[in-house]
Design goal:
Blueprint (H helix, E strand, L loop, with lengths): L7 E4 L3 H6 L5 E2 L18 E4 L4 H14 L4 E3 L3 H6 L1
């Protein structure tokens, strides 16, 4: 669809972290991610992020292993690196 973004952002931090600071990504905490995996697009790049890049790396491993997704990108260093 024309109104869909080229890239999707998914925040795998907790609600309180997302409320304190976010860059516009959809909140899907790591502990709940697999329940919401069906909402993650597979037809365009998806950038997954957290504070330092560790939870997002875990999220990508889980999604790739279980659903075979190959469009996921980890925001290396997380929001700490992005903010610098």
């Amino acid at each position: 669809m024309a109104d869909e973004p080229d890239t999707v952002l998914i925040d795998v931090r907790e609600q309180y972290e997302h409320q304190a600071f976010n860059i516009g990504g959809t909140l899907m905490p790591l502990g709940e991610l697999m329940e919401h995996a069906g909402a993650i697009p597979t037809n365009r790049p998806v950038i997954i992020y957290c504070r330092k890049g560790i939870r997002s790396a875990i999220a990508i491993q889980k999604l790739e292993a279980r659903f075979g997704m190959n469009n996921l990108v980890n925001l290396q260093g997380g929001l700490d690196a992005w903010d610098k």
